[in-house]
Specification:
The protein has 663 residues and is an alpha/beta fold. The protein is 28% helix and 20% strand. The protein is built from 19 helices and 35 strands. A 10-stranded mixed β-sheet has the order 1-28-2-25-24-3-6-8-7-23, sandwiched between helices.
Length: 663
């Protein structure tokens, strides 16, 4: 990336010092035209007035209804979501890939990010398309980081066109040290014939933590075929154990590459090119459990001392044999020798009548050494590794660059098919992430009761995936989806919202092209928010009652808890002041005077709201919003309008320089 004088002149003193230190120390500095403006642009973004569209909301009063779909520009939406700042567990999103067909840029954003227009399509012929994409993404990545909890995770999908640019941006915003991994997922499973060189069958998911030291990666659920590999033929009191568990390890050390003698056949077994997994002392203990005494002995094989049956016959080790490739040395004479016949009789008694030792020689005593691995001591999930190998791992899990094939993560055509099934064809979405991929990401990096944000919600795959996971696993994850759509089609309402609604109702498009209930519905609901004009003190004071109710219920949070008690369920009854309650049944009130404007909390208005509280049965403390408070009681928690509303939106009535701007 080039560095020009204009970009240097725009840097602050601290930024220039940081830039110089990186250059002097040989560090990598990312620079591009307009970067300085992009870095600070989020500070100029004003939150918007939120209008809750009741007609487009669905099942929002249900127990599982605390989900949100936001119709609006995503940077403005994230700023408006101030009460969720630092409260998001996982951001999983699929931004525009800059293909010449999907990325729009508004040049006005360079000076006024409050312009809600999405701008013109950036074509492949635009020489500044990569710079525009990076200027577009940088402030949004900064806001995403701010939205995450300290242990939160961002998983962002991308293809090869902007993969390197996105990686550099993420390294700068999150820090390279906080990169959890780069997922390489198989989007298609057959080569395309339109490529002159190599056919691109993969895309990427870049996974970064806000703080990798505190972030957590979950195990994947165990699959049924994994447990089918366990049995208990010897009635082991520890329960089922894995068939043919490997007794060796891939990292060979010479002291653990010795021979062991089978108590059944007298043959000497070696670990091949590997080494025995367990210490020699433990191996000897397990061998002795087959009924014979074992000793360490040099058998002239060029290896460490072997573990052999005391005073028993031994096969001769040929000098020209490669024990790495031919790890079993056996002899018919040894097999029939009285010492081995004796040891075999003891071993068969154990095999037929007792619990087998941990180290065993196949189910009949004539196989290679294997280890019993009891399911009780195996991880209760599948470790996410390259190609999601169907093995159980005891080693610490480190996720670096991984590959997920389409059987594990779904493929792009599956995503299209899923969208076709629920909405019918003709939705004009050419790329849709499969549910399987998004569900895996959510399972790995979002707790069972966490909140998932998708700032580029598109067709709503993230919300659909959460609803399905909640149904399957009994979890209580919530989603916030942000989408606006293009100028010609603001498909937040026609596509994103409709897909989530049909996922809940079970409605699908049948063969005749009509919509009917074809699937079992999913528990859930959502509020549908629409971003309106910018918020300032004047706008709040001029709001109608229903407008102010929307702003307060969508922005309210308390200093000690932004989560559970901040979710306000509206009370849609004919009360003068009472508008809602939280999960603790605490009442929320807005004081109005007779002129449909904000009033004051005095003794008279308090007595009126007290009567409404008793009638509805809501608890104290009463949360009261009003212009002024002239009557005080310990039963009231007072919020002054507009000051407290502005604060809940991250603004300050006195210091915010945008308050007096015209919209």
């Amino acid at each position: 990336m080039d560095t020009n004088l204009n970009s240097l002149e725009m840097m602050s003193k601290e930024e220039l010092l940081d830039f110089a230190k990186k250059m002097i120390s040989g560090g990598i500095t990312l620079s591009f035209n307009g970067k300085r403006t992009a870095q600070v642009i989020e500070r100029k973004v004003m939150p918007r007035i939120v209008k809750v569209n009741k007609e487009l909301s669905f099942n929002d009063n249900s127990i599982e209804g605390n989900n949100i779909i936001i119709d609006g520009e995503n940077l403005q939406a994230m700023v408006t979501l101030y009460k969720y700042k630092g409260q998001i567990d996982l951001i999983v999103t699929d931004p525009p890939y800059n293909t010449g067909k999907d990325f729009r840029y508004n040049d006005k954003w360079d000076t006024d990010p409050n312009d809600p227009d999405l701008g013109e399509l950036v074509t492949l012929e635009d020489g500044s398309r990569h710079t525009k994409w990076m200027k577009f993404m940088l402030p949004r990545l900064q806001m995403m980081k701010a939205m995450l909890k300290p242990n939160g995770v961002l998983a962002i999908c991308i293809d090869e066109r902007e993969f390197f640019h996105l990686g550099m941006l993420l390294n700068e915003v999150f820090g390279e040290e906080n990169r959890i991994g780069i997922i390489n997922w198989q989007k298609s499973y057959s080569p395309k014939n339109d490529s002159k060189h190599v056919s691109t069958a993969t895309e990427y998911v870049l996974v970064y933590a806000k703080d990798k030291a505190t972030a957590k990666t979950n195990l994947m659920p165990r699959e049924q075929n994994m447990d089918s590999r366990y049995w208990n033929p010897d009635s082991d009191p520890l329960g089922v154990w894995k068939k043919n568990g490997d007794a060796t390890v891939a990292t060979p050390t010479e002291k653990d590459r010795y021979g062991i003698q089978s108590p059944f056949t007298g043959a000497i077994h070696y670990p091949g090119k590997r080494a025995w997994l367990n210490p020699k002392k433990k191996m000897k203990e397990w061998l002795k459990a087959w009924g014979s005494d074992y000793v360490e002995k040099d058998i002239n094989d060029g290896r460490a001392k072997a573990l052999v049956i005391n005073k028993a016959a031994l096969p001769i080790i040929p000098k020209d044999i490669d024990l790495n490739d031919f790890p079993v040395v056996e002899s018919e004479d040894v097999f029939n020798h009285p010492s081995i016949v004796k040891s075999r009789k003891k071993a068969e008694n154990v095999l037929n009548n007792m619990v087998w030792p941990t180290l065993y020689f196949g189910t009949d005593g004539y196989g290679r050494p294997s280890l019993k691995r009891h399911l009780t001591f195996v991880k209760k999930g599948k470790v996410p590794m390259t190609y999601w190998a169907d093995e159980d791992y005891d080693e610490p899990f480190v996720l670096e660059s991984q590959s997920w094939d389409h059987e594990e993560s779904g493929h792009s055509q599956a995503g299209i098919n899923e969208l076709d099934a629920i909405l019918g064809k003709g939705h004009n979405f050419e790329t849709v992430k499969p549910l399987k991929l998004i569900k895996k990401i959510i399972h790995l990096w979002c707790p069972a009761d966490g909140i998932v944000l998708d700032p580029f919600a598109g067709s709503g795959t993230t919300g659909h995936a959460i609803l399905e996971l909640n149904e399957i696993a009994g979890t209580k994850r919530r989603f916030i989806l942000i989408e606006k759509g293009e100028e010609e089609d603001r498909y937040a309402s026609t596509l994103t919202r409709e897909r989530i609604k049909r996922a809940i109702t079970g409605e699908r498009v049948n063969k005749d092209g009509t919509v009917e209930k074809l699937e079992d519905g999913l528990a859930g609901g959502f509020e549908y928010w629409v971003l309106d004009k910018k918020v300032d003190a004047k706008a709040i004071l001029e709001m109608k009652r229903e407008e102010l109710i929307d702003v307060i219920t969508t922005s309210h949070w308390e200093d000690d808890n932004r989560k559970a008690t901040s979710v306000i369920e509206k009370i849609n009854k004919d009360y003068k002041y009472l508008v809602g309650k939280n999960i603790l049944n605490e009442g929320f009130f807005i004081i109005w005077n007779g002129k449909d404007s904000v009033g004051e909390l005095n003794q008279s208005t308090y007595m009126e709201l007290l009567a409404e509280a008793k009638k509805e049965g809501v608890n104290t403390p009463f949360h009261v919003y009003a212009r002024f408070q002239v009557y005080q009681t310990p039963k009231v928690r007072f919020y002054q309008i507009p000051d407290k509303v502005l604060m809940h939106l991250g603004l300050n009535e006195n210091s915010d320089r945008y308050n007096n701007e015209e919209d």
